[in-house]
Amino acid sequence: MTHEQWGRLQQNLLKTLGKNNFANWIEPLEFSDISEGVATFEVPTTFLGNYVSQNFGDLILHQLSEVGEDVRRVNFRLAANIGNRPSLLDAQPKSAAPAAAPSAPATATREEIVPGAPLDARFTFDSFVVGKPNELAHAAARRVGEGGPVTFNPLFLYGGVGLGKTHLMHAIAHELQMHRPDLNVVYLSAEQFMYRFVQALRDRKMMDFKQLFRSVDVLMVDDVQFIAGKDSTQEEFFHTFNALVDQNKQIIISADRAPGEIKDLEDRIKSRLQCGLVVDLHPTDYELRLGILQSKVEQYRLQYPGLELATGVLEFLAHRISTNVRVLEGALTRLFAFASLVGRPITMELTQDCLADVLRASERKVSVEEIQRKVSEHYNIRLSDMIGPKRVRNYARPRQVAMYLCKQLTSRSLPEIGRRFGGRDHTTVMHGVRRIEELRTQDGQIAEDLEMLRRALEA
Ligand SMILES: Nc1ncnc2c1ncn2[C@@H]1O[C@H](COP(=O)(O)OP(=O)(O)OP(=O)(O)O)[C@@H](O)[C@H]1O
């Protein structure tokens, strides 16, 4: 590999892993050579080699192929002149695995996943947030990840875009590689399956293809709806599937909908797919979205130490972005990157500026009028009293609650909200919103009211 290629590869890894991970784990690697499909890197400590191998090995393999290197395996060798290298022990996370014996050089091998695709090191069970909408899928995936006797075959996971199907499949593969390194685990998308099938046909290597796929212990095929309508690929998939099930080998399939609902998929395949356990990932709810954001923020805090995050921002995003987790994650990434670039804390204002397009796209159709109506019903007061000038507490508090919800659930500006509340000034609205923000954390009743109202408005 040339210096230029190594430089490009490092740039790609920096982009994928972020500054901190990159500085801790990748920068200390010294590229040595590539020989007979094995790329060797020198590492200052065995611990570092093991950690990188376990967590980033597949990613490095993938990136090597991206820069045009044909590598099957990555090898980490303890550098001879360790004394000259900076020690990285201080930079190592406390939770990382203990150092292995120096006599056992670490290796990340892709042999076990050929003909599969590389796994994303970030998609583990640890990083998967569990909530009501995905708890069954998660439990089933966990069970399969244990690598015990095959109880349901296939495991069929389905759900809308960006709800965590791929994440769960990779997590199963990581888990199996750890607990059952003896198993030949293959993960690939249905598209890659088709691509390899067509390639084998073209190169007259069908026997190799069949043998390869029939020798796996666990086969995972992502986005199986892709092969609908592609007759010969379906045929081959069907045979592979049957051969593995007959040998009692575990199969895990994902799709964007239930087997019976995939159009142009042969009936015999549909019924095969329904034989095992079919579980769906439901659309996320508010709690799950908030949980995911909180767990991502923990990672970002390491990457951007010292960056301040105002209270209420995560709740706001969890309310407002309900499309899918990918969009939610993207929004948070952008927010942190933006705030760190401009060197400002992440406030509600900054969030609204930075994510204006995302927020507009996922805007809910809740109107100010609807909020006012629901809030007045909830507190049993007349709408005219809530909007009117009276300042007694019985009206003022519901009014502030309604203003707060308008700010949270609509894209109306403070002056616009003020106008809709009997022509009040925007500072009055701001005061009301802040007051409710404070009370939310101190007063259980207010928090409960807000939650009930939000649910009612979202329904
Ligand atoms: N419960 C969760 N906890 C943490 N991260 C999640 C969760 N669900 C989804 N994600 C994240 O959301 C992103 C999209 O998830 P993933 O790629 O697994 O979706 P998918 O269901 O396979 O979507 P597609 O239908 O587009 O293939 C990933 O970065 C994933 O880590």
Question: Which class best fits the helix and strand makeup?
Answer: alpha/beta
Domains, number: 4
Gross morphology = globular
The CATH superfamily of the largest domain appears as P-loop containing nucleotide triphosphate hydrolases
* Strand percent estimate: 5-15%
CATH architecture of the largest domain: 3-Layer(aba) Sandwich
Count of DSSP E strands?
A: 9
Q: What do we call the CATH topology of the largest domain?
A: Rossmann fold
Q: Which residues form runs of ≥5 with pLDDT under 50?
A: 82-114
For the largest beta-sheet, the strand count, sense and barrel status come to: 5 strands, parallel
The unique ligands bound to this protein are: adenosine-5'-triphosphate
Using only C-alpha atoms, the radius of gyration works out to: 27 Å
- Widest β-sheet, arrangement of strands: 6-7-8-5-9
Helical content class: 40-55%
Q: What would the average pLDDT be, to the nearest integer? A: 85
Indicate the CATH class of the largest domain. Alpha Beta
Helix and strand element order: HEEHEEHEHEHHEHEHEHHHHHHHHHHH
The N- to C-terminal Cα distance equals 57 Å
How would you summarize what this structure contains?
With 459 residues, the chain is an alpha/beta fold.
Account of the 3D structure:
InterPro entries: AAA+_ATPase, Chromosome_initiator_DnaA, Chromosome_initiator_DnaA-like, Chromosome_initiator_DnaA_CS, DnaA_C, DnaA_dom, DnaA_N_dom, DnaA_N_sf. Oligomerizes as a right-handed, spiral filament on DNA at oriC. The chain is α/β, with parallel strands linked by helices. Helices cover 53% and strands 10% of the residues. The N and C termini lie far apart (57 Å). Helix 14 runs antiparallel to helix 16 and helix 16 packs across helix 18. It has a 5-stranded parallel sheet, sandwiched between helices. A 4-stranded mixed sheet has the order 1-2-3-4. It folds into 4 domains: 107 residues, GMP Synthetase, Chain A, domain 3 (2-Layer Sandwich); 150 residues, P-loop containing nucleotide triphosphate hydrolases (Rossmann fold, 3-Layer(aba) Sandwich), CATH 3.40.50; 76 residues, Helicase, Ruva Protein, domain 3, CATH 1.10.8.60; 91 residues, DnaA protein, C-terminal DNA-binding domain (Chromosomal Replication Initiator Protein Dnaa, Chain: A). About 7% of the residues have low confidence. It is globular. The chain has 19 helices and 9 strands.
